[in-house]
Amino acid sequence: MKTDILLSALLIVLLWNCKAPAYLPASGDIVTNPWGSRIIVNRSSGPDISGELIAADSLKIVVLTDINYARRLDRTIQVVPVNEIKNYKLYYARPNRYWWTIPAFTAATLSHGYILVFSAPVNLLLTGLVTLSNTFRYKKRDLTLEEMKMFARFPQGIPAHLDLNSLK
Amino acid sequence: MIMKKKLYAVLILVILFVFMKSCALYHFRRDYHNANNLIHDTGYMQTKPFLKAHLKNGEVYILTESWRIDSTRNMIVGSGSKYNYRRNKVYDGAVNIPIDSVVIFETNTKIVKHESGRIAALSILAAADILLGVICLTNPKACFGSCPTFYIDEHDSFHYADAEAFSEAIRPSTEYSDIDALNNKNLFSGTFSLTMKNEALETHCVREVKLLAYPRKEGERIFHAPGDDFYRCENEYPLSFATADEGDITRFLRYPDREERFSLSDENNLSSKEEIYLRFETSGISDNPGLLLHFRQTLMTTYLVYSAFGYMGDQIGDVITQMESNSKTRDKVKEGIKKELGKIDVYLWNDRKKEWEFQNGFYEIGPIAINRQLIPLRDWSGNPDARLKLVLNRGYWRLDYAALTDIRENVDPIPISPSAVLNKGLPDEKALRDVLDPERHLVSMPGDEYKFIFPLPEEETDYELFLCSRGYYLEWMRESWIKDTNLLKLWEMVEFPKRYLREEAKQFKRYETTMEQQFWDSRLDTKTFVYHEN
After folding, report:
1. A30, A159, B63, B201: which could form a disulfide with B51 (CB 3.0–4.6 Å)?
2. Using CB atoms, which residue from A137, A147, A155 is nearest to B104?
């Protein structure tokens, strides 16, 4: 029983971490999305930054950070020098959800008899994980900085005379 | 109890494994342009044609309905939505977007062009405004490269360049003199001007710029032939019928209207020939006709040249040095692929011998300006039906016009040197000295424009004019080319061109239908781009 609770808690944690922000489009709307993609940047010094990629060039990237409800922080513009970037992940669409499979597959384990005790939680978790899997993502090794700029809100670079603070 | 613990341990391991796999990277290509192609290749997205146009001011248009390019007004016309820089939708409806205001395009729909109607754009179109640092992100091998381009009207679009000079001279040792017909209208003026532009990432070293002029009366034309002969001609006999593999192509070749005929390359072998059959209306034709052809290359040469640069990569300095100092290497490079892909060979049907007789071949490198040349035809009397055949490499040439003309005589045009050179509207004495002195070069950097003023011999006489230019140019290595270093591939290209062209066919096919738009959009705008003050 205790283990089942722990496993369910693990599922909830995974669910929370894989939540997608509103500016990230559904996979079918990638091509008409006017916003930049979501980026999570691991820095060599300082906390990680996540938010909408505004622009990127050979010296820096500009991110409009997500709202941080836990720390009650509003969106801010963060400029990260390229030499401070340790790693990053870029998400260009929301994951496809297959929520319908969770009750269906879990219910299927009713036929497993004694093994149901083990297979039901496994099915619950596995279908949940598949549902959560984010297939629309690049990591640092997959995408150079030069290529990354095309996923920015302004792939052409920050327009001249634009006040970045007005983006918030 | 122990059994249960073991089972749970296994379950947790399985869960962690599945978690890692399910959150793993979707099998996507690495490059954005490949990723974009994959996005566009997925069926449900391809059914939704769209165009995204990013403007210099940060706004973006998203056109989701059918849209088109208005090449006359240089605009994108369609309907869609406009978002401001904060990505609030500010407009929905019909749109007219000046192409010059756009920095980057993103599209997944066919662009219908007046030349062919067959260009598909499944790519990102990158306007190469160097100031904004966006150059040819999708396909480096399609980056605009041109050698010097010449314009009678400096305001003409680059699609209407009147000449491109010494396109083959990509190294100092390959410098040569190039002659291009300017196809000028009647002019009765004491002077003639021609503007030379550097619209690519290149350094142009121009040794000489001259006009060749020959007086013409009404109804006369002077044409340039392979071998640099010139012929005074009269009358033009139009095409009555032309066929190729795809069927009747008469409408593409009957009028010089820039509605060109071209074929796509063979997906199994870039060196693959095709035949075009021509018949003409020859009522009243003389016994000494010539075949007049308007033609230019497709982007296959550009692709191969830039591929070669890519293979050289960061070793390019050493490789070029070897080519410059070793004549055997130079000859191999010169003769290999060029010879393999060949010219537009002209054959005349000999009704007595019942066979096709080879006449000569048209050849001029370059995909930008249309070439207008003449080949005299031998033994015309044996061809009562005026049947000709062109044999050319598939996917390598674009043809605009074919006609017969009566050759009257071989002539020598008058060479004319410039009397002045203008740079930003002001006389540039140094530039004039450079092009007049055979020991010097006028060096032109990206964005430069020079206007040459030529004095014509007689004000009241009409002249047929030709550009005679000499020099070479140096391509600037693109960062993405350096990543492609592959000396083995370069060696294969030089030593075994037949095999290389066979193996490279599928790779070229991936880019063939999208290169066209990318090439034109990566040209520098000499009005806004400044490399350095001069």
Report:
1. B63
2. A155
